[in-house]
Every structure is written in structure tokens, then in C-alpha cells.
Design a protein that fits this description.
homodimer, Uridine Diphospho-n-acetylenolpyruvylglucosamine Reductase, domain 2, Uridine Diphospho-n-acetylenolpyruvylglucosamine Reductase, domain 3, Alpha-Beta Plaits, five-stranded antiparallel β-sheet, 21% strand, disordered N terminus
Chain lengths: 467, 467
């Protein structure tokens, strides 16, 4: 990784560690196991342990840690649920990991305004459980049970972004601690505003490099009167992709439309005890009134039949639906279970929908010609898909072949007018591709980073590199 | 205006003017009338003439002007259609006005991807005329026939943002010339991306202070199969507002839901030759399949009846519908025609929908107790509304009373958790309110401005002040 070339250690000095210990007591730890759990994410990327972990309980405590780290020029890395995938959490220069799990309260539900205020460490599942009685829900769902702060920081999206948008569209405002220790609120509760630069969207997707998100105001949606889910098998992956493209182009408001190739279906059958036909498959969900979901399903059925799609296998019961989506959410773990002991070198790209069929077909051809097993799965309604290459990170042959497939896939997406990452982010893993995709804007991104974090304290080396 | 306290003149020096003249020939002018037309917007704010106007035909030409202005430390103000409302275009320090009207081409329509690439100087009406044969349209509609570059720069929204979002939600990517003359492309054509800081959203709403937008990629939507519009009169403004709130809270996907108070209805009748009942009124539009628009209208009707709404007056024919929306779009001009010779001191605020009834009622009470005429109109589905105070800008009594009502309305919106501007922006007119609303983030906004435009060349004195 190019970032690692210039790493300067900025390990937390003893006086800082002692000051944090005095301030946080049992909520401060230098334990090896805890540091190990905080120096890595769920990906294959190399871990790098922070020097200590702190568990703040309030924005003011976060600000205290930021100020203390600033005094000692020590890096600070915010940690949510540890489910990111591009090496976002590795403490390459050393420093303090700020575990946000102790800040997990729902602060205010505004049913009338369809919004909610939460602390950054709450997970999406807990949030939706706490909302259950209101008839409202928060839709963004990256699969993993991530924290809302982490989801905002990585601009997460997931299975129903095609209908409800990503974190970019669903964060109304953020409370954040900036690198100088100041606490700011980036927006308000009005649905729109033309007042000032859009710092909310500057922080969303900034991967903890511009500020530490401590609270969020989020949009909520009414739980649809009717929800129906189905799977639809296809003879060919091309047919499934063509159905997705036609569905999106026709403006059909599907809530979820997910692709799994035959390898991924096999993995899900084994991991989640399903008995799906091991063919390319779409998982679908329709939201609306009973009449409208029926209309949508009918319209989609006609499209699918035109592309070799079989009959729907309906999941009308809530339990069946949950089982289906649980299996989809566990796709990454299911893929890894195909090759026990191996790691998942996972990557994601996103292309304009008109380029999706070509991008997927060429990627599948690459995989077919490779010795690696690599299921393909994706939020194809957005033009976004993932490849999970199963590699032994200690086997140079595996790593090199994985990298080759990975790089070809990302280059292909860029050549087709797409992006190097639809939702996983840059972290440390895609620095080189950010430079390729946004070489012209990268100096301005760095200028913003330098202006807001002149000491490069916040998650250094990620997103815009070590510069 | 606080901004004017510290103004330093940075008038374009003769060598710069001669260099621009040599470069642009007939597309350069120092003519008094042209300068006068470029030193003001449509508002009551004081004009300040630029030293010259340049009409570029390409991004490279814009970059040349930016570099030349940089050499001479001379300000540069991008000019679209001149329809902004907060003094955005006044050249307080002197400088060059860059009129983008010569860059008005549709560069590429991607029907399959539902997006379009345009030059920044195209107006929204021209864009939609050019799209007509594709079956697609661009929805953001601020009323005025603004340019897309100007709409992006001011984060414009308008009548159907409640359904389709504002410019924030509908710009996929921008080409811009930065203050150092470098040309950047902020995004790509993928529907989502997690690659890098979100410079697209940083430029959207930056009011020409961080970069000059020269091209845009925009989302498009299929023209709905069925469009129906209606007006619905109410006995009280409260009843109309309550109907809006219930409509939004119920999740009904209205495409437009606009309020006009009885003063504004009277103005529109006179100006646009309508014969509407001079009562508080909602203008509505429903988009969808014929069945779905009928369902929506039925659901809204039930809500309205519960709040003293009368029968719908339908405009099912395209011509009737256009006539109705033309009248709504001309509301500002209609209001001004109520008091010929007076100016419109217009302001807009946006509040959480739960606070809308209170915010409007208290504002109306202020107006009732004032000697000024001030129609109220708004995009109330978003919680956004406008007050148009008719004042003689040369009469200190009018100005002072207008300011009083204005300031009370904005303070009220802020106190209710809203924003000082939903869509008109900060410009020069709301600098003090930006400081009130975002005092905590303003230093960081200024740090971003300083990082990206260290010489303060781009529209100086606007948005973040003269600092």
C-alpha cells in the first residue's frame, strides 16, 4: 500500500496515556486483545494496533480526548462496530482508538417530522428496534450491523439505497468534534437549507479524517403498509442483469433488487440453510400499498420473463422474508465459509446502469479464468456490485492473483464511467484508485484536510493518504 | 450590511481589462448598461457594478479569465440569469462579471442512465424543451427561469422539491474552475460513490465562492404517465397549513404542494388573469399512473375536507395546468405589481414541518400588525415559505419596517429549529443570520474558503463574509 511508504510513528507517549487513564479510568485500556480488536476491520487488510482504546460517554469526553491527542500530536481513530472493509481502522502511525459503543442512545424521535436524533455509537438494528412502536424506520442497511456514526463516516448504503438513498441522502445534520477539539453542529432539522457550505455532506464519507461524528439527525420513513419479497432465478447472469437494468430504466420503485451469482447462491444455501436453485438469482422487495406492491411485482414479473427469469418464489410471511434477507446480509460470511481458513478480499465498484451488464460480464469472465473462487453479489439497482475473492493472505500467489482481479475490476469500472467504490470507501485499501479516479480534485481534498486538520491527527493515512 | 464595513476596492486594473479585451474581443464589454445589468439580482439589495463583463464559450476560457484575474488580484463573479435574491451578484469590491449565457449546450443525454450533461449557462426551461423527445425531464424548478449553474451554485429548489429533491439531490457531478485556474470534475456518472470527500456537495450551494461551475451532470426522471393539478381553497390559512402537514406526515407522495395566502391569490388573479377565490389556497400536483394520481387526489381530498378545504378546482388539460403553474411561478412579479414602483423585500425560511403552522401563523400576525403589504407564498411541503414585503427602497420607514418583519421571521424560524434560508441562500443579505445559525461551523467554512481560494477572488464578501 502506497500509504505505508512514508509512515512516521506517532505512538501515544506515556504522559498522554497516563492523562487518558486518569480521565477515563476503567474506560481506558491498553490491553493487547482489546487493542488487537480495534486495529482492524472485517477485511483482509493488515491490522495495526492502536496504543490504547478509550470508551467515551459524551461529546464533551470525545472533545477532551481530541484536545489531549492534539497536545501530544497523537493520532485518533474513531471506531464504531469494526465492520468496515478497506483498512479504515488500522493505526498505522499508532495512536488512540475511540470506541463509540458507549454512546448508543436514541436522543429524540420526532414522529411528526419523520426524523430522529441518535448518538453515533448506536447500531442500525438497535435503532430500528427502538423505533418499532412509532411505525417509522430507518432504511439504510449495509448488511453488517454497523453503527450509524460509522455508516455516516463511510457514506454507507446497501440493499435498499435504490429506493431510499444512501447515508448521503439520509443524514440531516451531524454533531462532530473537529480536530482542534471544537464541537460543531453541521445543520438543523429543516428538510432543506441554503445556509452556508454543506459541512454535513463534507463529513459524511470523510472516514473520520475531518471530524469525529458524535450525534446524528436522520430521516425516517413510514413502515410500508405492504412489504413483499421474492427471489427470481435466471438461466444466465446476463438475463438477471438485463432485468435489473430494464426495471430501473422503467422507473419501477423497487425497494431492493439484489443480484447473487450462482456461486454466491451456493454459499448462502450452505451457510443459511436455504434451498435455492443454484442459478443466478435476484432477491427483490416491494414496498407500498397492497395494490401498489402487487402492481410492482406484476410489472417486474413481465420484465423478468422477457429475460429468461423463472417464477417468483414469494416470501410473504415476515419470518420467511427476514430469513431471506438475513441470508443476503450474511453473504460475505457465507462466501468466506466456502473456503474455511481463507480471507475475503472484497471490493466494490459502481457504474452507470447502462454499463452494468458489460462490467459484470467481463468481471465474471476474469473470475472464470482464475484459480480463485470469487462469488459476486451486489446492489445492482444502483449499478453497484461486489466481488469476494477468497484468498489465503499468507499465500503470495493467492494475494497476487486476488490483487490482479481486484485491480482489473476497479480499472474496468473507471473506464466505464463508474467509481472505484460505491459504498466501502477508500480507507487505506483504495488510495491509489482515488488518485486515479479523482487525481484532479485530490489536491483540493488535501487542501480541505489540511485546513480542517492541520496536524493530521484524525485517522491519518486514510482517504487522502499520508501526504 | 455588515459585509460592507470592510470593503477594500479591488477594481480591475487597466492591464487586466486590456488583456481580457484582447482575449475576448466583442465578448468583453465595459458598457455601463451591461455592467448595471450584471451588478444586481432581482432583489431589493443594493447593486454594485462590476468593472467589465466577459462572455466565455468554454471551460478553458473560464479558466483563462480566472488565471488572469488571479494575476491581478481582481474578483470574479459568475453570472447565470441574474435571478438570485440575496445580493449574490453585486461586485462590492469591483471585478469581472463572468456571464455564462454563452455556455448553454446540452452536451449528452444518457436516456438509459437517466442523466444529462449540460453546460452551466443553460436555463431550466431550455433544458426541458431540449429533453422533450426523450420522455425525460429535469424536475428542479425554482420558478424563475434560472440557469442550471446558478441553481447549483445557490442550492436552488422550488415547487417540486417535495417529491424530487433540490439541486443537492439532483447534481451527480460538476465541472468547475477552481480559484487557481485548475479545472476539476467533482464526481462521475455512477449513482453513488464513496470515493473521496464530497466536493460536489461542497460546491453545490457555495454561491460561486469556491469555484466557477462550468458543466453539470444531472439526474433525470421519466415524465409521469399521468399528471393532474388542482387548487383547493380554505377558509383559514391554518386549515391549509394543517392539510399540508397531515399530507406530508402521511407519506403521500405529492409532486407539488404550494401555499398562497389570500393577498398572494389576489395578486396572482390580477397579474395572471385568473379568477380564483381570494382565500388561502393550496396549489397541488400529483404524478404517477392514472390510478395512483387518482388515489393520491382522493387521499388528499379527505385530508383537506377535515381542515375546512373546499372542492378541488381541477386543471386536467395541459394548458390549464401550465397556466396555473405559470401564475405560481410569477408570484413574485405578481406581488410586486400590487404596489407598482415598490421593490420586493423577499425572504425565505424553512422549518421542521411540525413547526410550520406556528411559524406561518406568527408571521401572518406580524404582517397584519404592520403597515406594509406582504403576500406569503411557499413550498410548504418542505416547511419552506416566503414573505414578499413591498417596500420603497428609498423610504427609510419602509425599509426599516421591512427589515423588522424580515428579521423577526428569520429569528422565529431559527428559534423553531429551522434555517435562515431554505433556498435563496446567504449572498450578502443574510450574512448576519448565517453567523447566528452556524456560528460554530462558520470558522470551519472560512477555513475551507481560505484553503480553496486563498486570495479571496471568487465572489468575495458573499456567503462567508469579507473575513
Amino acid at each position: 500500500m502506497s500509504v505505508q511508504a512514508d509512515i512516521i510513528s506517532r505512538a501515544a507517549p506515556a504522559p498522554l496515556l497516563r492523562a487518558l487513564e486518569a480521565r477515563f479510568g476503567a474506560r481506558f485500556s491498553q490491553g493487547e486483545a482489546l487493542r488487537a480488536a480495534h486495529g482492524r476491520d472485517e477485511s483482509w487488510h493488515e491490522a495495526a494496533l492502536p496504543d490504547a482504546v478509550v470508551f467515551p460517554h459524551s461529546t464533551e469526553e470525545v472533545a477532551d480526548v481530541v484536545r489531549l491527542c492534539g497536545e501530544y500530536n497523537t493520532p485518533l481513530i474513531a471506531f464504531g462496530a469494526g465492520t468496515s472493509l478497506e483498512g479504515h481502522l488500522a493505526a498505522y502511525e499508532g495512536g488512540i482508538s475511540l470506541d463509540m459503543s458507549g454512546m448508543s442512545r436514541v436522543l429524540q424521535v420526532n414522529v411528526e417530522d419523520l426524523d430522529v436524533r441518535v448518538e453515533a455509537g448506536i447500531t442500525r438494528k438497535t435503532l430500528n428496534e427502538e423505533l418499532r412502536d412509532t411505525g417509522l424506520f430507518f432504511p439504510v442497511d449495509p448488511g453488517a450491523n454497523a453503527t450509524l456514526g460509522g455508516m455516516a463516516a463511510t457514506r454507507a448504503s446497501g440493499t435498499n439505497a435504490v429506493r431510499y438513498g444512501t447515508m448521503r441522502e439520509n443524514v440531516l445534520s451531524l454533531k462532530a468534534v473537529m480536530a482542534n477539539g471544537e464541537i460543531v453542529e453541521t445543520g438543523g432539522r429543516a428538510r432543506k437549507s441554503a445556509a452556508g457550505y454543506d459541512l454535513t455532506h463534507l463529513l459524511v464519507g470523510s472516514e473520520g479524517t475531518l471530524g469525529i461524528i458524535t450525534e446524528l439527525s436522520l430521516k425516517l420513513y413510514g413502515i410500508p403498509e405492504s412489504i413483499s419479497a421474492a427471489v427470481c432465478a435466471f438461466d444466465t447472469l446476463d438475463g438477471a442483469v438485463a432485468s435489473v437494468i430494464e426495471t430501473i430504466q422503467s422507473g419501477l420503485p423497487v425497494a431492493r433488487i439484489e443480484i447473487l451469482d450462482e456461486v454466491q447462491v451456493r454459499a448462502c444455501n450452505a451457510y443459511s440453510g436455504l434451498s435455492l436453485a443454484e442459478k443466478p438469482m435476484l432477491f427483490l422487495e416491494f414496498h407500498g400499498s397492497p395494490r401498489s406492491t402487487a402492481e410492482q411485482a406484476e410489472a417486474f414479473g413481465a420484465i423478468a420473463r422477457g429475460h429468461g427469469g423463472g417464477d417468483f418464489d414469494w416470501a410473504t410471511q415476515t419470518e420467511d422474508r427476514n430469513r431471506l434477507w438475513e441470508a443476503r446480509h450474511n453473504a460475505y460470511y457465507a462466501a468466506r465459509a466456502l473456503a474455511p481458513g481463507k480471507s475475503g478480499m472484497v471490493t466494490d465498484v459502481c457504474v452507470p446502469i447502462s454499463q452494468l451488464a458489460r462490467c459484470i460480464a467481463e468481471t465474471k469472465a476474469d473470475v472464470a479464468a482464475s484459480f480463485l473462487t470469487a462469488p459476486l453479489v451486489g446492489h445492482v439497482g444502483d449499478g453497484n456490485f461486489h466481488l469476494i475473492m477468497l484468498i489465503d493472505p499468507d499465500d503470495p500467489k493467492d494475494v497476487s492473483e486476488g490483487r490482479r482481479l481486484h485491480d482489473r475490476m476497479v480499472e474496468r469500472a473507471l473506464a466505464l464511467g463508474g467509481t472505484s467504490t460505491g459504498e466501502h470507501g477508500i480507507g487505506a485499501g483504495k488510495l491509489d484508485f482515488l488518485a486515479k479516479e479523482h487525481g484532479d480534485t485530490l489536491p483540493f481534498m488535501r487542501a480541505v484536510k489540511q485546513a480542517l486538520d492541520p496536524k493530521n491527527l484524525l485517522n491519518p493515512g486514510k482517504m487522502v493518504g499520508g501526504f
